Amino acid sequence: MQAPLSRQLLVTVLAVLPMLAFALACRLAGPLPGLDAYFPPAPADEAASLAALPGRGGDAPLLQQSTLPAGDAMARNAAIPFFAGPLLPAAPFRFAGSETDRTRAADCLALAAMAEAGPSDDGQRAVIQVVLNRVRHPAFAKTVCGVVFEGSERATGCQFSFTCDGSLARRYSEAAWAAARTRAVEALGGRVYAGVGNATHYHTDWVFPYWSPQLVKLARVETHLFFRWPGYWGTPQAMRAPYRGGEPDVTAPAPDAAASDAATPGPQPTVAPGAPAISGGTLTMRDASGKANFVTLDAASGPAEALALARKLCSGATTCRVLGWADRAQIPATFPLPPAARAVLLFSYTRDPAGAEIALYDCQRIAGVAREQCIPRAR
Questions:
Q1: Long-range contacts of 78-86 (CB under 8 A, 24+ apart)
Q2: Fewest CB within a 10 Å sphere: which of 27, 263, 300, 342?
Q3: More confident residue, 169 or 250
Q4: How confident is the model at residue 293, as a pLDDT?
Q5: Which residues, other chains included, contact 273 with Cβ-Cβ below 8 Å and sequence gap of 6+?
């Protein structure tokens, strides 16, 4: 038994050595198109370099919808070539948390996978891989649930839009949860979805986010395109942040959620000076930057009026959000939205710095809306 094992080990080593020698020779010889993209040096000022990255954790969400016609967006996406070099798989994820951490991480991964990819096996595994790639990258949160819900507490929006736009009200079957959790547990246990490499970003092929042409296009999985950052921050060696556990309990209410839910007359109007005059609704709250707006929509306002109102409030070249309710008493005091306020959200609008938009509506109460613009309530 020992001799065959020794021969197998020797064969493996001999098979790997030429690849290592080739990579080293390429590195010593200087830049090589495609392969050299995986060996750039770390930037001297990492903090400044991270702050300059497009589509980083503090930016607008990964937009799944856009004002750009779908045909135009698909043409622009097709015009950007895929990376010509090797698509190296990510390293297996090294989980080092408690059983509570594992349960919370698996639930967050499963929820993201279902919300972003539906029932697709490849699609869910690709989304899960992106989340775990982010966990290990210094530009993002350091826990799985932290990555999935990153930005849900911010006025400027979420990295995964389903955590902000009312989609958390969606309900899934036990079978769907079981399948998604199985994929999540496998990934936490080290299973790698090699098809997206070290991707940290993705979007559907019928949208064209502002950051898309600034990133390296790696792969397509069904209708989603996957990207990494150029230079050092897109390399395997950049994903060096160790996982230490400490998963937050995302099912627990925010500190102010109970007070917000119990508020009967709703918060008193707090509108920063300089807010534009709007029609079709009442501006109840607006932060000083103008990036976050809570409104009460008039009963007669339809999708066109709500969208016009939001665009007027978000006319600058910056990230901006408008969230609307039918009754002022439903409006919470601040972010993150408590469950009661999210459940009755009537309208959700997000705009990124390039003008791409998400506009979603409660289609049970607002008529005349295309199905893809309905706030998802069930799947």
A1: 80/212, 80/213, 80/217, 81/217, 82/217, 82/218, 82/219, 82/220, 83/34, 83/37, 83/216, 83/217, 83/218, 84/33, 84/34, 85/33, 85/34, 85/35, 85/37, 85/38, 86/34, 86/35, 86/38
A2: 300
A3: 250
A4: 85
A5: none
